[in-house]
Specification:
Elements: E1 4-7, E2 10-13, H1 24-28, E3 31-39, E4 42-43, H2 46-59, H3 68-81, E5 87-94, E6 111-117, H4 124-129, E7 131-135, H5 156-167, E8 172-176, E9 182-185, E10 189-194, E11 197-200, H6 211-222, E12 227-229, H7 234-238, E13 242-247, E14 251-258, E15 261-262, H8 270-283
Parallel strand pairs: 7-8, 7-14, 11-12
Antiparallel strand pairs: 1-2, 1-6, 3-4, 3-5, 5-6, 8-9, 10-11, 10-13, 13-14, 14-15
Bound molecules: 4'-deoxy-4'-aminopyridoxal-5'-phosphate (PMP).
């Protein structure tokens, strides 16, 4: 069966799933999106993702042409049409078709697109042994330019950071912000453990407020682990006992090497292991 894609209320075959070359999503990266997961037929924290999508849209003055509850329904409808229970879901809202000029006020209707597919994760051995990453030279967008809080269709900054990672022979890169403080990775948030306490950069440091990040913070607090949202430097990463990344696609993945330096013992640490386990319980995988 051909994959069905939701476009503006219709479910169309993958081959027919097309938008105009005059859509400002293509011309200018003018639009917003979400990456979501479903586990055993239940969409993981769907309300948090939908809320962030509408917040991102509001931040760029884009009106999503449907109510949040209808979007919720459309996501489930797309999963059902594709017979998917464990899936990655991409929700995209583009500014819509316009002229070649920048003005969003000259565009017609925004388009809502929902793509569901099988998820591609990191190889299982990386979850057991940890990921090697770098701190790259591409900095996170300044919050007063295109704020990292907005999950916009313009991900070029992250693409450039990803290129640095891949060229260095690793899969992820940590970006510092305009003040030289730790921000986040190209598609994941960053945590470190030091003396049993968990640290992660605050949203004000110029990051996307990850849904997984918030779930992990809550689950750590539920396990009586102290969590502090605190500015971190390169030094803090190098001297951490443990480090891990969180994101919808990656879930919780340990990091054991940064810039060629071994983090902690070089093995997945106890706090990380506990949080990986707790996250697995939330998704029903453990
Ligand atoms: N930071 C960036 C830049 C991201 O694109 C993402 C999502 N892929 C995240 C962090 C993690 O957010 P979430 O846990 O909501 O997927």
């Amino acid at each position: 069966m051909d994959l069905k894609v939701y476009i503006d209320g219709a479910l169309v075959d993958k081959q027919q799933a097309k938008i105009s070359v005059f859509d400002h999503g293509l011309l200018y990266g003018d639009g917003v999106f979400e990456g979501i997961r479903s586990y055993q037929g239940k969409v993981f924290h769907i309300d948090a993702h939908i809320r962030r999508l509408y917040d991102s849209a509001r931040a760029i003055r884009l009106e999503i042409p449907m109510a949040p509850k209808d979007l919720n329904e459309a996501i489930y409808q797309t999963l059902t049409a594709n017979n998917l229970t464990d899936a990655y879901i991409r929700v995209i809202v583009t500014r819509g078709v316009g002229h070649l000029g920048l003005s969003p006020y000259k565009t017609a209707n925004p388009s809502v697109i929902i793509i569901t597919d099988q998820i591609e994760l990191y190889p299982p051995e990386l979850y057991e042994n940890g990921l090697e990453i770098i701190i790259c030279s591409t900095i996170r967008n300044h919050p007063n330019a295109l704020s990292p809080r907005i999950k916009s269709l313009n991900y070029l900054n992250d693409v450039l950071a990803k290129v640095e990672a891949l060229d260095a022979g690793v899969l992820e890169a940590i970006m510092l912000n305009h003040n030289g403080l730790v921000a986040e990775c190209t598609g994941d948030n960053v945590f470190i453990v030091r003396d049993g306490r968990l640290f992660t950069p605050p949203t004000a440091s110029g990051i996307l407020e990850g849904v997984t990040r918030n779930v992990v913070i809550q689950s750590a607090r539920d396990s009586d682990i102290v969590v502090l949202e605190k500015n971190l430097t390169r030094y803090d990463l190098y001297c951490a006992d443990e480090c891990f990344l969180t994101g919808t696609a990656a879930e919780v993945i340990p990091v054991t090497k940064i810039d060629g330096r071994v983090i902690g013992t070089g093995k997945v640490g106890p706090v990380t292991a506990r949080l990986v386990q707790a996250f697995g319980e939330l998704t029903g995988k453990q």
